[in-house]
Amino acid sequence: MARWFRWQGFVAFLLIVLGGALFSLLFIDALVKHFIERTGTDLVGARVELEGARLSLFPPTLTLKGLQVADPEEPLANALEVARITGFLDGQDLLRRRVIINEMRVEGVRLNTPRKSAAVLRASPAISNRGSEKVPNSEVFSQSLRGVEKVVEQADLQSLKLAGSLQAESKKAKERWEKRLTDLPGEDRVAEYGRRVEALKQTKAPGSAPGLPEEILRDLEKLWRAQQECTAEIAVLQERVVRLERAPLDDFRRLREQVGASPQGLPGCSRLLFGPRLGLWVERALLWHERLQPLLRRVGPGKDIVRPLSGPGFEVRFREQQPLPDFLLRSLTVAVELGLGHVVGRVRNLTPDQNLLGQPMTFAFAGEALPRAASLLLAGEADRISRPTGDDTMKVRIKDFRVENVAVSEFAGVPVTLVSGTGTLQAQAVFNQAGIFLDLNLAVDPAHLSVEPGKGSGSIREALSAALAQTARFNVKASVRGTVKDYRINISSDLEDVLKDAVAVEVKGQFAKVEDQVRLVMAAKLNGPFQEVRANMEALAGVARDLETRLAELTELQNNLPR
Amino acid sequence: MVRLLAKVLKILASETEPGQIGLAASFAVVAGLTPLFSLHNILVLFLVLVLRVNLLTFILGTVLFAAVGSLLETVCSWLGLALLTAQPLERLWTRLYQSPLWRLEDFNNSVVMGSLAISFVFFLPVGLLTTSLIRRHRERLLARVRLMRPTQILRGSRFHSAYQAVSGWGR
Questions:
Q1: Inter-chain residue contact A316 with B93, CB threshold 8 Å
Q2: In this structure, is the dihedral angle defined by the CA atoms of residues A121, A125, A126 and A127, taken in order, positive or negative?
Q3: Chain A residues within an 8 Å CB radius of B112
Q4: How far apart are CA A29 and CA A45, in angstroms?
Q5: CA-CA distance, B21 to B163, in Å (whole number)?
Q6: Residue A339: helix, strand or coil by DSSP?
């Protein structure tokens, strides 16, 4: 036996195991801290830092202090700061490699706090650009009165085009008919027929001028056909002349819109006012929703094959008598310090294995009589039980919240600020396989909007600014529809009517100043082609009259033929 | 300090029978190829310490096979997944899955299972091959090593004297 066994090895093994256990006990807190920081950083894409972690075994309790989660979009800001987290673990399940936290308390949560050093590790998508792209654009407010002549010069005048083509066609028709007129029986021919008819009358013998009636009849037919064609062509050209006469009016309307601003484009003002900010919120919400996905559902190549919470490879799950997730936070109580006041919330059943638990993750935050709002309610559910893509719903209602000095947006080139106001916000969102469905309603009453003086001197801009400054209340409705990669934001607001009226008055006044000028410039451009068309039409009318005269004379000769 | 180091080296270099070195190499396959901080490696450590195997070979072998293991991680994961999802073995895995001890072992992780399977396959061949190589080439290899310049420098050092004093060799 002694040849194969090294009894001192027992002692060495015990020493090593005891040493390992002692090391773990001494450094378990540092290991937990390191694990949380590393996993959190991987999840968020920005640094996650902890001031300290403490794991007690009897009873199993995890305490975290000073958690800072950097904002991936803002290098010098924390998205989240938590003063203290206390979690009570299930000791028996730890032996099964399961982290089951029955109760966790999160205290002193603050959002969007400044930080001293930059902590963004990987570039996140340019959310500000992506969000604003989803808001349809409008240029109406950036327009100012432009030089009338330049605009008319550059304008694609339909009347000028029509006049040009009619000028050429009427000229061609005139030349063609003038030439054809020379080929048709003219005055000489009529005079000749007259002489022959007279001679026939004197001889009083009908057979002495054989073929004369037939010749006259043939020429009559030629003239009649030519007259028909000429009249028809004149009618067609005349119709185009009528259109040409109307065309400058249409052009004038178009030019009016180009030269000055038109209130027609104003329905887009809500998008300009609220679109960029809303677009940014939606984009940020979608990014965080995407980031939190690993906490809600684990992915893997098969139904029971999932990625482990940490480490390489895959985990295969087998049937259990009492199946439980590998990680489960049964109840999380959160106290958040928002700008509106102190809000308390509860999150239930946070696990990446909802299909095992059979219950969705729910959350509800509420606050009453807050320093800056009458009430706040935020509630929702993330359901991953049957579908990995999930079925998430959320409702928000903030009643009578007070705001001060909130930058709304750049509007007409000048920043608009909500100096003070009391608002009520209601929103509900559904996020599932079919896409995103978000409806938002914001009512601010009273509202005091301030508009900084613009850099330019556009009077439309000034009118809009004045109208905004006089606004006492407003409502905004927004909806988001589509998929994560392709969604549209539709925004409407009663501000549109206010601004539309202001602009309409201003546009009317402005256009009155330049109306005559536009008419003159247009007339100067159209005068030449118009005159030539008229001259050509006059010449064609002359051809038609000539044909009619010849027809009448020849008909008279035919009637005078002796029978 | 030098004597202490020499004593450690003596322990590490003891048990130099070919079979003892071969068995150490076999254990190194398991400890090196599979994730180091696993439950089964505590058993391996226990066996390595309790059985008279060459510790130096075990340590060096573990380092060597750990390097190989990191290169084979994808293969291990693929093999482990194939074993864990094999229909005939499902009942066995399901039974083991109910036990806290086996859950601690993390046997249902594809990398753990795959690397364990590979190390079991190579356990005996590596042991036998190492034993056989040592038996065949020990004298020749030892003579060559003794003639190498670094060995000669080491033999002339104070450390060598201390080592001889504690080991009793070279008398």
A1: yes
A2: negative
A3: 313
A4: 24
A5: 20
A6: coil
Residues of A in contact with B49 (CB under 8 A): 6, 9-10, 12-13, 16
CB contact under 8 A, A10 and B49: yes
The full DSSP string for A423-441 is EEEEEEEEEETTEEEEEEE
Which position has the higher pLDDT, A322 or B54?
A: B54
Question: What's the average model confidence in pLDDT over B60-68?
Answer: 93
Where is pLDDT greater, at A179 or A504? A179
- Helix spans in A297-365 (H): 354-357
A541: tokens are: 């009318």
CA angle A354, A358, A362 (to 5 degrees): 65
* Amino acid sitting at position A2: A
How far is residue B163 from each of residues A60, A392, A499, B58, measured CA to CA in Å? Answer: 49, 71, 96, 21
Closest CB to A313: pick one of B80, B98, B100: B80
Q: What is the Cα–Cα distance from B59 to A398, expressed in whole angstroms?
A: 65
The CA distance from A85 to the nearest CA of chain B, in Å, is 27
Mean model confidence pLDDT for chain A = 81
Nearest-neighbour CA in chain B from A312: distance (Å): 7
CB-CB under 8 Å, A316 with B52: no
The pLDDT tens digits of the residues spanning B5-20 come to 666 666 656 667 888 8
Count the Cβ atoms, other than its own, within 10 Å of residue A182. 7
Work out the minimum CA distance from A61 to partner chain B, whole angstroms. Answer: 20
Q: Could you tell me where the DSSP H helices lie in A310-369?
A: 354-357
Instruction: Verify whether the Cβ–Cβ distance B84 to A316 is below 8 Å.
Output: yes
- Tell if the CB–CB gap between B52 and A313 is shorter than 8 Å: no
Which has more confidence, A377 or B155? A377
Give how far Cα A498 sits from Cα of A290, A451, A472, Å.
39, 15, 11
Kindly determine whether residue A318 and residue B108, on different chains, have CB atoms separated by under 8 Å: yes
**A313-371 tens-digit pLDDT:** 888 888 887 788 888 999 999 998 888 888 999 999 999 888 888 889 999 999 988 88
* Cβ <8 Å between A6 and B49: yes
- How far is Cα A482 from Cα A484, in angstroms, rounded to an integer? 7
State how far Cα B53 lies from the chain centre.
10
A-chain residues near B109 (CB < 8 A): 308, 311, 313-315
Angle subtended at Cα A280 by Cα A279 and Cα A286, rounded to the nearest 5 degrees: 90
Residues in chain A closer than 8 A to B80 (CB atoms): 313
Q: Which of A16, A95, A319 sits opposite B100 (nearest CB)?
A: A95
Residues of A in contact with B93 (CB under 8 A): 316, 318
**pTM exceeds 0.80, yes or no:** no
Residue ranges of chain B whose CB lies within 8 Å of a chain A CB? 15, 35, 42, 45-46, 48-52, 73, 76-77, 80-81, 84-85, 90, 93-94, 97-98, 100, 103-104, 106, 108-112, 114
Summarised one tens digit per residue, pLDDT across range A183-241 is 888 888 888 888 888 887 777 665 666 777 888 888 889 889 998 999 999 999 988 88
Phi/psi of residue B13, each to 5°?
A: -95, 5
Contact B72, B121 (CB under 8 A): no
Contact call for residues A68 and A41 (beta carbons, < 8 A): no
Cβ atoms of residues A329 and A387 within 8 Å: no
Tens of pLDDT along A477-511? Answer: 999 998 888 888 888 888 877 777 776 776 666 66
